[in-house]
Amino acid sequence: MSEAQPGNAAHARRQLAFPALFVLLWSTGFVAAKYGLPYAPPLTFLLYRFALVAALMTVVALATGATWPREARQIGHVAVAAWLVHGAYLGGVFLSLAGGMPAGISAMLVGLQPILTALIARAWLGERVVPRQWLGLVLGLAGVWLVVRGKASFNGDLSGLLPSAIALVGISVGTLYQKRYCTRIDMRSGAVIQFSACALVYLPLVLLFEGTPVRWTHEFIFAIGWSVVVLSVGAISLLYWLLRHDAASSVARLFFLVPPVTAVMAWLIFGEALDAMAIAGMALIAVAVALARPAGDR
């Protein structure tokens, strides 16, 4: 018993620290997009990102002796999860922002993710969602609206909604697919397969639809480096670890925290407005996340 206690304590510390670190890192995606998109088309930016992560993780996997999937079905599941979580979600968000969609509208749509994930998880994975959690999910969405409402001006053009809607479906279904089919795959080799699969899909799309060359400015190099190391390696690894150790709907509620953390970063870095209503929305989101905790938590 005494030998197991240190391991249990370490796991408990990770359960506390990893969600907070995930939210912090994931929220920096806005900063990377803000710096990088002026210098590269959105799909081209993501193609470079996927290819560089695949190369980096290949070195890591080989150097650390990672185990590799032996069955074609396992590789297929990893690739499908990648096309949803990385390909559809990131592609949708980047196309939306590059096309002029206000960040607030995009954030509101993707902010539906915890609710959509809870609905799908209940039907697909049999996860129980109690009334307290439903209340938390709804309050969280209201809090997201308060945070982003000042940036959510909408000119009536519905065409820009499609990429954000694709992003919403991609991240919602993709996290559930990852949890159901890919939790036993080594995350190091899994990352190689996932980002290689995305690069293979994005390469013909870039050749067909984007011909603008990348401008290799200091801002773009920073953005692509941050996206590769911090987001695609750090944040995604944390997301998959959380999915292995928590209910999918529990992990999804963390995405409510991304808009307020991003708003604070934008205020600090870019001087964007942060008013009393936005701060009230952040407080509401904190309450919502507490209410939406797993049914068995105390």
Structure commentary:
The two termini are about 25 Å apart. This protein has one domain (about 20-290). The mean pLDDT is about 85. The protein is mainly alpha-helical. It contains 13 helices and no strands.
Structural class: mainly alpha
Which stretches of 5+ consecutive residues score pLDDT under 50? none
Number of strands: 0
The helix content, as a percent range, equals: over 70%
Number of domains: 1
What is the averaged pLDDT score?
84
Largest sheet, in brief, is:
none
Structural shape: globular
Helical run tally:
13
Short summary:
The protein is mostly helical and 298 residues long.
Strand-helix topology:
Layout: H1 4-27, H2 29-36, H3 42-63, H4 72-98, H5 103-110, H6 113-124, H7 131-148, H8 161-181, H9 187-209, H10 218-245, H11 248-252, H12 258-270, H13 276-291
Give the tags.
mainly alpha, 0% strand
